[in-house]
Amino acid sequence: MNDQDKINSNPYWDHRFETNWEDAGGREQSRFFARVAIEAMPQWLVHEVRRSKLSVCDWGCAQGDGTAALEQMLSWDVTGVDFSGPAIERARQQYGNVKFSHENFLELPDRPKFDVLFSSNTLEHFESPWSVFDKIANYASKFVVLLLPYREFERHPEHDVTFDTVNIPLVPHGDWVLAHHAVINTSVMEPTYWRGYQVLLIYARPPQLAAQSIMLVDVAHVGADASNVKPQDQLATADTVGAEGATALKQELAQARSDLESQKAHIADIEGAVQHNSERLDSLDSAQAIVETSNEVAKLRDQLAAARAASEQMAALQQELTQARSDLESQKSHVAEVESTSRRHAERVHFLEYRERTLMEEVDTLLGSRSWRLTAPLRAFRRVPGWLRRRQQDVKYAYAHGGLSNVATRSLAYIPRHMKRAASVSAPVVSASKPLPLRGPREQRLLPDVFVFGIIDWHFRIQRPQHLAREFARAGHRVYYFTNHFEDSKEPGFTVERLDESLPLYQVKLKVEGAPAIYFAAPTDRAIAQIMNGMMQFRDWSGTDRCLTLVQHAYWFEIAKRMQSQCLSYDCMDHHEGFGNVPQELLDLEERTMKRADLLVATSGWLEEHAHKYNRNVAVVRNAGQYSHFCDAPEERFTDPRGRKIIGYYGAIAEWFDADLVARVAQAFPDALVLLVGSDTANVGARLREFSNVEMTGEVPYARLPYYLYAFDVCIMPFKVIPLTLATNPVKVYEYLAAGRPVVSVDLPEMAQFLDLVKVADTHEGFVEEVRQTLSALPDSADTVDRRKSFAASQTWAHRVHDFRDAIQALPRPRVSAIVLTYNNLGLTKNCLDSLEKHSDDVDLEIVVVDNASSDGSQEFLSSWAASRSNVKLLLNSENLGFAGGNNQGLAAASGDYLVILNNDTVVTRGWAWRMVNHLRDSPEIGLVGPLTNNIGNEARVETRYSTLTDMHVEAEQITERNLGAWFEFKTAAFFCAMLPRSTYERCGPISEDYGLGFFEDDDYCRRVQEAGLIVACAEDVFVHHHLSASFDKLGAERKRALFEKNRAIYEAKWGKWTPHQYRITNTSDKKA
Fold first, then answer.
1. Do 642 and 752 lie in a common domain?
2. Of the candidates 620, 655, 685, which is a domain's last residue?
3. CB within 8 Å of 140: residues ≥ 6 apart
4. Signal peptide: which range, if any (predicted)?
5. 87 in a domain, yes or no?
6. Same domain, 200 and 73
């Protein structure tokens, strides 16, 4: 027996699985290879297995980690097979819901075939892999899927063959042909468990290929192809795979050389022809030039005459242009006022439309209730006296205008006309439209856009994410739902699909290289960078100026955080640790998300208690039901041919589904039908196969659910009581009640809110008894049904969005104190204060104005201005205390958690304070942060083109929007505008007053911040206009120069030689987020 025989023996692998398999990363590698296969697998195969419910075998499954990943991610019916008993035993312990079988296919056992045989990284262990293929292919009736190491030139000690293009057959056997292949560079994946390439091969029996109608695009080569492999690796292939491969390569090389010589000769012929034609062209050009010159002279004479005439008109036009510009400027304030009024009216319209829809739903609910129908005779009776009075007047009028015959005629016409009823008209169903073309930014909106970063694709099972998104759109927001399905592309970008023609509701698919699945790992830095580039493109297209972000999976956290939204909400729908298979890095990322979120939303009381461990801003927004979808019985409903009572359930049938409990119910009620509607991903069907009265339908569309629901005599909630379900607020209960159906559930905390509308039991025996009592009490009274429906009508998704918006509105805003130091320049001061009041909506702003003995009327204006504002503190000095002295007064008087030093010759822009606060929150290493500006002597300066403050705001948005969430570290932030958290102020103290009137205070303070172990940063998504040295210009040039040199000496005595500030020549490469 050689070494390779030992490696392929039962004792060898039994020993490996019992000793060092887990320590060597075997389990992680199995899951990794399953992920590689899933991401490379063609969609036609994935859909065919699901649609036709094909059985799948994972041959060589080891301890079942890859098998479980295949079943979970692809919803396939997978059975793991391995010849190692210890491996299968361990697999069954780890994954009780997955099927495993201990058998050796190489011994050719007599057993039924599977439809699909999948095997990951097994054939490389055999000296004759395609002989092994012949054996294992006996157990596949349709497809064989292989994942193999590719071009593994430095082989693992356990591997006996290197797979390459020269030894992978297109037809390994007469019954099999290669239908698809993909090469994947797994070394660039993060994390990776294989530093090299993998190849996915899909072999099919020829009849299957015909049945699938596969096109060329379906077998396209994807991933890293042969052209991406280094030439020296190609030569190594010849030495590795044997003489046959080397001979083939040499023949190909000789042919290539021959072709190259032929091409060279052809190129030489072409070059000669080009040279000849060039000489002829030159001679023709010379003759042509003479003719053209004469024509040009004549043309120039005509143009000169026209220019002289035009010059006479220029002066008049210039004068008109000057007058037009003056008129335009005078109109700008009026236009701004009209736009402001229009926006207020639009917002009111949005609110009233939303309120109208809500009230109409409530009215429809009331009109459909039994109590309204029962009281109809009373309402009719109350209307009788008024009706009689009106009819008496009609009779008098008819008699006066035609006598008794006219009375009789009108009476006969009145009766049939008023007895008719209007036919009901149903609204047409609007289907999803095609993807929208890219277009320019749109008009600014009053309501912020809503970005929903989804956990599922919109077109997957309709759940909480889609319901919330739709109701936000109905409330007047533009809603963009970002699907978790990416488009594989090396270039950033996006596509948009409009989901409802009647609502501003869209699904956005971003382009990410490799199209990673969000459930396997946190995003890599490379993926984040590409997604952010795509998001910047998207925001430029959508014209989004403000947004709310709703995160539903932690994978999106870094992206959502950089959106600088008015509120970053994390919708904590489930206890993800309860799923048991979530990677630790995603759990860690979820913890960061929960801590950082502005609003942490919990769907249940259990999750609320859990959420409070991480965040104080927690709101409970439970699930709900789409009442209008379930409240009315459909025209058709499911019927049991045998007329049995139906005990029904619909929803996911996964690891939290209690199959044993359902088995007890089926056994206890043999004369009833137990109908289970939903996708079975936990192999529950196998557990219940013995019960003839259990029927499972599989997944059905959301629109089809009422068809089954109205057939249920009793609805059940047969969940296991585990951490995952303890945290669950089930949507289906609201839907069950909307149909008026009785509900029996296991005893979960969230059932308490339904009071006696839902019967609960804490044991299997108790559950069976509650079902028995419910069936025996049928039919339910009309009052009982109405109570259920009324409760459901008050728990709709519209109510939940209202709760969501209220929770956002109630959030505490960060307290920011802006210290504005003034010295004369009243006009600039007014502009500064006006901008603070207009563009600081996102924070709780306190304005502390310190005036340093102005003499231009500033103190009188400020006294009047501050008297009418409760958020303003005014300090009026009788002498000029200098830059440091005045700002220190303001800092001492400020009450904010974030302190801003702001010159009065500045104008802030929208979002300035909120964005800088977020940088300090997200990066605690920052001790002080400043903005970009048009006018300063360091790296914060950017080139601008605006000439008016109106244009400034437009250009500022263009500059900052493309750098959302970005900042860079630099040495000194100029104190025309600088924000520091109170913690920095308490550590570093007030500004040094050694420098008198000014100069070098900002350099000095930044050195102290850095000495405290913190960094100074510039926010690239904040722009503040700066006039520059408006106050110092009052001192005069000579006095300024003397003050500068004096303070420079003071600075250098404390900190060493001063380094002059520098501009940025290009964008910094140290940009961070």
1. yes
2. 620
3. 57, 113, 114, 115, 116, 117
4. none
5. yes
6. yes
With b meaning 16 or more CB within 10 Å and e meaning fewer, what string describes 56-66? bbbbbbbbbbb
Residues 603 and 641 in one domain: no
Examine the domain organization and report whether 217 and 269 are in the same domain: no
Question: How many whole angstroms separate alpha carbon 850 and alpha carbon 730?
Answer: 57
Domain that includes residue 29, residue range: 10-228
What residues does 900 pair with on adjacent strands? 818, 979
User: What pLDDT is stored for residue 582 in this prediction?
Assistant: 78
CA distances from 642 to 76, 349, 673, 693, 707 (A): 32, 55, 9, 11, 18
**What φ, ψ does residue 178 adopt, rounded to 5°?**
-70, 120
DSSP helix/strand/coil, 767: helix
Q: Return d(Cα 81, Cα 61) in angstroms, integer.
A: 6
| Contact call for residues 959 and 934 (beta carbons, < 8 A) | no
Peptide bond between residue 191 and the one before it cis (omega within 30 degrees of 0):
yes
Q: What is the CATH number of the domain that holds 15?
A: 3.40.50.150
> 952 and 1020: one domain?
yes
Regarding whether 829 and 745 lie in a shared domain, the answer is no
pLDDT digits 0-9 by tens, 983-1030? 999 999 999 998 877 778 999 999 999 999 999 999 999 999 998 665
pLDDT, the chain, mean:
83
The alpha carbon dihedral of 1052, 1054, 1059, 1064 has a sign of: negative
* Domain CATH number, residue 669: 3.40.50.2000
- Indicate left, alpha or beta for 515 from its phi (over 0: left) and psi (-120 to 50: alpha): left
Reduced to 3 states (helix: H, G, I; strand: E, B; else coil), residue 108 is coil
Domain limit, last residue, from 620, 636, 671:
620
- Cα angle, residue 566 at apex, residues 486 and 980 outer, rounded to 5°: 115
What does each C-alpha distance from 953 to 282, 338, 777, 1025 come to in angstroms? 55, 18, 69, 9
Distance, in Å, from the CA atom of 758 to the CA atom of 157, rounded to the nearest integer, reads 62
Tokens 């169903």, located at residue: 429
In a domain, 810, yes or no: no
Exposure string (b/e) for 362-385, b if CB count within 10 Å is 16 or more? eeebeeebbeeeeeeeeeeeeeee
pLDDT in tens, 1056-1071: 888 887 777 654 445 5
Say which DSSP state 217 is in.
Answer: G
Q: Check whether residue 767 and residue 822 sit in a common domain.
A: no
The tally of domains found in the chain comes to 5
Asked whether the predicted pLDDT for residue 271 surpasses 80, the reply is no
* Residue 567 identity: C
Could you give the 3-state DSSP secondary structure of residue 59? strand
Structure tokens that stand for 555 in this block: 């994978």
pLDDT for 581 equals 64
List 140's β-bridge partners, or say none.
114
Instruction: Give the side-chain half-sphere CA count within 13 A for 87.
Output: 33
Helix, strand or coil for residue 511?
strand
Q: Is residue 773 located within the same domain as residue 869?
A: no
Handedness of CA 1061, 1067, 1070, 1073 (dihedral sign): positive
pLDDT digits (tens, 9 = 90+) for 116-163: 999 999 999 999 999 999 999 999 999 999 999 999 988 888 899 999
Tell me how far apart the alpha carbons of residues 913 and 72 are, in angstroms, rounded to a whole number: 45
Residue 1039 has pLDDT above 80, yes or no: no
Residue type, 311: S
The helix/strand/coil state of 56 is strand
